[in-house]
Amino acid sequence: MKEKLTTIKQAITLVNDGDIVALQTMATVASPMALVRELIRQKKQNLGLVVLVGGIPVDWLAAAGVIDRLIGAAVTMEQFGLCQQYRQAVEQGRIRVEEISESVLNARLGAGARNLPFLPTRGAIGTDLMKENPDNMKLIEDPFGGLPVIACRALNPDVALIHAHRADRFGNVQYEPTAIWPDIGIMPNAAKKVIVSAEEIVDTEVLRKNPDRTVLPGFIVDAVVEIPYGAHPTSFYPNYGYDSDFHRQWTAISRDKDQVSDFLQKYVSTPVDQSDYLKLIGGKTVLKHLARWEEEE
Amino acid sequence: MSADWQNSPPADEYSIEELIISVLAEQFRNDDQATNGMGSFIPVAAFMLARMTHAPDLIWLAGTVGLEPRPKRIPASTLEAPLWKDSIMYIEQYGDAWHYLFSDRWIEKFCVGAAQLDQFGNANNSVIGADYHAPKVRLPGTAGLADLCSLGKKLYYWNLNHSPKSLVEKVDFISGAGYLDGHDTRDKLGLKNGPQLVVTNLAVMDFHKESKRMQLKSVHPGISVDEVQAATGFELLLPQGTVPETARPTEAQLGMIREDIDPDGMRNK
Question: In B, which residues are within 8 Å of A76 by CB distance?
Fold first, then answer.
């Protein structure tokens, strides 16, 4: 098996300016935040994002001017409110949104993964999503005489960014039992390259004990890096919950350009590595608190 | 199940959220399956209330992820793992979740919110303003709403801020198909079911059988028909005769909501 273990810097050099990047994220759940911070540090430009439901990573990438288009079903931080930097950028025309429903996104990625020109859905028929997106959604007749369906054009992102519980050095990736959203279920399979950050890198023998937990085979993964708490401030179950205080710190200042710039300077540009970042966000005290999410709730 | 819920008297004091929860709970039958999305404290409370009263076998797929979970109370998010604590099964989103959602056998009903809803029950959670690519307000987006509306589901909308801005003659953008232009325009696309009820802080509305226009079904205690009309951005159809009053939640229902289902008051946030 080929060696895939590398540094976060090397891994993110696989992302080129202008790429379409499929990002794991679900409001406040499981997002590869360390990889996202590295995209900002390397000053990537003109990226397009593919998200199911984007949260704080989308807001940061919008704030840093890294993205100029987004394909997705929604962007929100749920109880922490709207992503204000993203919202301002869209309202000012700096980010172009191709809004699609969840079933359309799944169909587009599914077609991409299976090397088909399109897959159909019956979701979204009659909406304005189709009217605004004639290049990727077309109402077609059922060749078997049933009701019409929407043909959803294949989407193959240039690269998928994923965070997982563990991986070996050959890029075989495991996920602990928890919610599995399409961003693990289909996005990496449709993408041309896959970059994975994992809470821990383990010996392949460890994976062999629970092959049912392996979600991505090493042959589709291009780079893997070890990043403990790599999803902070989003949740990563069962390891840790989302950081409410951190989300609130962000939403308290996220409408103001100068404060946003200071915030990103502090948490994105300044930390030299992940352990430096973890100290900044409160160190062991905060991490222990986040790990106790079951008692907290 | 609480033994005395059937004979409990209507409550004198209740919040608008509690009234809406009790109206929505009524819509679920014992053989239904229910599921919820983000920020859905009111629907989740309604499912839990239905299960504690008239629908003990109502199946709940929390966040379309966790089958029959046992959260002690409603947590701070309805899309995070604490909601699907102790589930029987995790349903994979790209796989079985959409098998069940696409099916016309399962999960027939949804409770959802919309920033704008129009006289034909079309919903907008996408943009406010005429220019889609430079909108006045960028809203979160349709998420799964566009799918559910077109997959023949029955939609129950809730709205805590009944106003001419949220109940509009025509939505700026159709993120979820209602009855489109009314009459048989929805049928013609082969779309079944559609919006059933709109429950707001002032009243309950349904849709006229033929024209598919929104009509007043009941006004909440203390609210007049004129007040509801004045807060609505289009002319509401009126039922024949006197407009009935919305049933108040019972003392037993309030007890369950406040003590068992949502002691932390997530429904008010």
Answer: 38-39, 140-141
Number of helical (H) and strand (E) elements in chain B, helices listed first? 7, 14
Specify which residues B90 forms β-bridges with. B66
For residue A124, give the nearest of B79, B137, B146 by CB distance: B146
In the structure, what pLDDT confidence band is assigned to residue B73 with cuts at 50, 70 and 90?
A: very high
CA atoms within 13 A on the CB side of B25: 30
Task: Indicate the fold that domain B5-263 takes in CATH.
Answer: Glutaconate Coenzyme A-transferase (3.40.1080)
Partner A contacted by B265 (CB < 8 A): no
Question: So where are chain B's domains?
Answer: 5-263
Q: Which of B153, B233, B155 is nearest to B191 (CA)?
A: B153
pLDDT tens profile A3-41? 999 999 999 999 999 999 999 999 999 999 999 999 999
SS3 content of chain A, % helix, strand, coil (to 5): 35, 25, 40
Distance from C-alpha of A82 to C-alpha of A254, rounded to nearest angstrom = 10
B77, B144, B173 ranked by CB distance to A101: nearest: B144
Angle between helices A244-253 and A56-63 (to 10 degrees): 40
